[in-house]
Amino acid sequence: MSKIYLHPLPVRIWHWLNAFIVIMLFLTGLQLRVPSVNIFSDYRIVVLMHKYFGYAMTLSFFFWLVYYIFTGGLIKHYVIGIKDIKAMPGQALYYAYRIFKNEKNPFEPAFDNKFNPLQKLAYASVMFILTPIIIISGIMFSDIITFFSWIEAIGGIRVLDAIHVAIAYIFLFYLIIHLYMATIGKRFYSHIKAMFTGFED
Amino acid sequence: MRYVTVAEQFSVNTQKKIKGLFIKALIFIFFILSPLFSFASIPSDDCLGCHEKYTGFNHGKTQCSSCHSDIASLPHGEKLKKPLCKTCHSKTEEAYQKSIHSKKKMNCKDCHDVHFLTKDKKTCVSCHSNVAHKRLPAPEKHLNNLNCLTCHGKPRHGEISIEINTGKKDIIKPSNIDKDRNGHIDHMEWDNMNAQLKREIKGKEEIKKNYSIKIEDPHLITKTYVTCKECHNDLAIFKKANIHIKGMKTYSIPADIRIFIHELPSIENYRHTVHGKKGVRCLDCHISEKKISDDTCMKCHEKLYSIYKDTAHSEKGATQCTDCHNPHLTRSYKELTLNERINICVRCHKDYINKHKWLPNTVLHFRYLECTSCHSPGSTKSMLFNFVVRDEEKTKPIQYEDIKDIFGKDLTIGKIIDRDGDGMVYYDELIDFFNKIKNRLNKDLFIKSSILVTNPYHNFSQKNLKNKVCNECHSEDARFYNSMLISIPEKKGMVYMPVKKTILAAFPTSIFIDMCLLGEGKIRPAEIRAILKANWKDKPKLVNELGFKLIDFIGITISFIILGVIIIHIILRIVVKK
Q: Among residues A181, B125, B517, B537, which one has the fewest Cβ atoms lying within 10 Å of its Cβ?
């Protein structure tokens, strides 16, 4: 059985760091929205934690962007081509039906092309659409007075809040699916192990 | 079409040439004769040969004969005409004729030495030394900063410029004094800046106030002088104030003129105050020449004073009723805007922003709260909504006068908003009313939200609220959600009317653009059940009222659906594998 090198070290570090940041943002965000959920004792600290983890996520996003631009991975891994679109029904059918019959995954990951078409769709929309929007709306929240004229232009603080929270929910859907999909490799820990060692069985 | 013949064309050309030659000849003759014209006036040096005492005379560029114009040749006759200043200074003369000095038969020479204008120049003080100014309040302040003409002349336009020199330190930057970043310093921001200077360089800054003024004509001094009201109430003289901060870099920023010129009580304004409206007469309080004390206020406000007298403010003896309340400007707390309320406390507690640094988003909190929202636990707090119009970054609450014509005369605005007459304003009622007046006023109208005291209790001494949890406000159980009011301008003054809490989240909310509290409230199963049980007719209204809370409902529902699908997926994998 050959091992494929999928995740270079910087990507692995970024992944776990980002995972930690996102989880902290979820927890603090949950307490901010529903104060009766008492995860951290001081609400004031929760406000500051959410703010600074938000800044951390901004930095982490730019690290990811710059890293992939310089290594050329941005186009290889994230841009969806006609070939990918054609392969999407097959991939969907695999997850919905063929997987139960223990058939082989139609997609073979390689160092130069590590995401299947559905993964590409999911990751590209998260990284290119959702993350930038949640970061921008979060930055607008970080200093409401300065950005007030912008906030007003989109319809007020409540609309900004709605955008921020709606995207957070989409992140939550993504996270649930992501966590489950991480367990459907060759063995249930294969993908997770790969994110630590870099090698996929 | 008529063509011009060759002969006609020739005659037109010749005429033009002759005209040109004539003009050229005139210019030539003027140049040839010009030395003769200059020789016609007598050079001043010739005069000074005899009139030695005028050697070095100075009156602009004039020569002796410019004023002594009846001298045609030298030597001149003995009797000469008296030169008239108005020959040149006709405008000044015109203004001077109206002045009190002219009426007292003074002439130009009484103040100006016409031959030596700069020598022994006379000023107001040359004649009017040590004028007592007995009737002028705060004479030192007025006389040190203003020149005589500010009050006794005809001032046209004045400007106050404040120069603050902080030495080599860059303590004050526009971003940290202009807290609300509207490019304009108001009273609170000015107080806060002073507190900052006091704290950081211990008052070693230099503050120069310069009251510069443009005068219509300094010769026009009449008996009537500027009244206090013109300057202090009508702001007729000083109209602008600018603050110049000099540290490492120099910044300039415009400021509210009212910081430097306070409003004076006037009978006219007094009639509109609470005291005036309730028929309190001057003599009810001013029974002697003595300054009024708390005893005077207590005559009517005894019950209130009994609460206040045991509080820290009163016990320290530092504050009397009049320290916070100006009895001549007293307005009902319903009429006071949030900033005006904060301003009362900030007159003493200047450093309030820094004292609240523990509070995240300090400045933002003070956009929605007044000091007593927290520091007076005994008072009733409400979430209050006001109709405001924004005009060049400044917001102004709407008054009855602004909207009375929209709905016809003598109507109760409250009844117009509350269409169904149940005494409660619902989101659709409010939005209808809002759109109606917005269209008619054609102004930048919105609803300002704040959390204010709506029933004051005169104990403001609660301190050290740091230990208090944020969740007293940032929670759906916050007390002010039980008292949500809209302030409606009626003929008799502002009136509060209760509003349904759902107006906050209901679609569309673009009229409450500035209100969304963290932890405001989550969707409840009861609300979902109500929608499910309701008739199809009522469903849209209920969904609309839930408004932005639906995001949570949709989000949580989808999350559960995804979890369900995953569980089915896992089960199928296990079952089929076997």
A: B537
